[in-house]
Amino acid sequence: MQAQRTILNLLAAAVLGLFLWWAEGHLDGYKIQILNLIAVNIILALSLNLIYGFTGMFSLGHAGFMAIGAYVCSVLILDPAQKEMLFILEPAYTWVQQAQAPFFVAVMAGGLAAAFFGVLVGAPLLRLGDDYLGMATLGFAEIVRVLAINLPRVTNGALGFKGIPGHANLWWNYAWCVFTLFFVVRLVASNSGNVFKAIRDDESAAKAMGIDVFRHKLLSFSLGAFFAGVGGALLGSLVATIDPKMFNFVLTFNVLMIVVTGGLGSITGSVVAGVVITILLEWLRVVENPLFIGDWELPGIPGMRMVVFSLALICIILFRREGFMGKREFNWGWLLRSLGNKAGRHGS
Questions:
Q1: CA distance 271 to 269
Q2: 3-class SS of residue 277
């Protein structure tokens, strides 16, 4: 059975590779951009699901970790000549001006920087209750945004960075997406993953069993921050421009919406919802455009698509709190058993 699953995983990776190769040659730039956003959103959803869905920590600071990853990566992949032109408010520090690294190293650095701040912030905040943790992490994200505005020699202040090299193509984004998926699946299936779920279900019982709850919560929080930083780094390179206004609460809300819609504690749910919601968010831009009915015009309302999705999220919370998938997961074992049963019926 394990050998069959390994073969099926390799086949799935090969099919994904063939699809990406086909997409590069046959899809226009807009559709490729949506595919790229799907990969980034899946990474972000998996990172938040690890914190919230599997460990039960209500965190609203994802935009802050994404901002850290995006700024660190951008500083490392922008060449000195670009930085000299960009920093017009105040000249960059020498170490910022001269910093340079390959894209993979820059993305890793963005993730590690976010993980470092995850530990730094998590050490005091994870001792708080769930509601307080949510408010405190939301405050952390706002602090990061304000610091980005007020550190012009590092972040170029409110102007941010433009012309960021677009290294984050389909291959890079989906390679990181597959790695994140593989890592989270393996982690959740490990002893540490079982401990995370035990803490989520009953923290007091986990303590009574001798589990070091704080250490495991900090581990989950820092790992989630790492992948949020990776997602932010990829997003910055993908859209080629970042500024502090980009990393507001709406960004965290979008990720939270994917996690809740797919199902808290469901990896499959995060992947499926990441695909569906990313496409719908783009498709629903039509509701923000003017609508013409004969000679009558209904003006477009900016931000209307987020109103639609907010209402949808309220309905999901009211009528299907577990999300579309609940805690269920897709696995090859179910598929193999189904195929085996069909083969048995045909043979008989």
A1: 5
A2: helix
Contact 264, 49 (CB under 8 A): yes
- H or E stretch including 282? helix 267-283
Pairing of strands 291-293, 296-298: antiparallel
Contact 172, 160 (CB under 8 A): no
Whether the CB-CB separation of 237 and 166 falls below 8 Å is answered with yes
- 189 contacts 55 by C-beta, under 8 angstroms: no
Q: How many Å apart are CA 66 and CA 114, to the nearest integer?
A: 8
Amino acid at 293: I
Q: Rounded distance, CA 286 to CA 290, Å?
A: 8
Amino acid at 223: L
Run of H or E including 297: strand 296-298
DSSP class of 331:
-
Task: Give pLDDT < 50 ranges for the chain.
Answer: none
- pTM reported for the whole predicted model: 0.90
DSSP code, position 27: S
- What pLDDT shows up at residue 345? 57
Read off the pLDDT of residues 107-152 as tens digits, 9 standing for 90 and up: 999 999 999 999 999 999 888 766 788 889 999 999 999 999 999 9
- Using alpha carbons, select from 243, 256, 37 the residue that is nearest to residue 137: 256
The residues, ordered by sequence, that sit 6+ positions from 3 with a Cβ below 8 Å of its Cβ are: none
Pairwise CA distance, residues 22 & 174, whole Å = 14
Distance of CA 167 to the CA centre of its chain: 18
H/E stretch holding 241 reads strand 241-242
By C-alpha distance, which of 114, 99, 13 is closest to 63?
114
Query: 144: closest CA among 251, 52, 220?
Result: 251
- Quote the CA–CA distance of 254 and 63 in Å, as a whole number: 10
Q: How many whole angstroms separate alpha carbon 265 and alpha carbon 326?
A: 7
Give which of 72, 122, 105 is closest to 229, Cα–Cα: 72
In angstroms, what CA-CA distances link 294 with 285, 289, 291?
Answer: 21, 16, 10
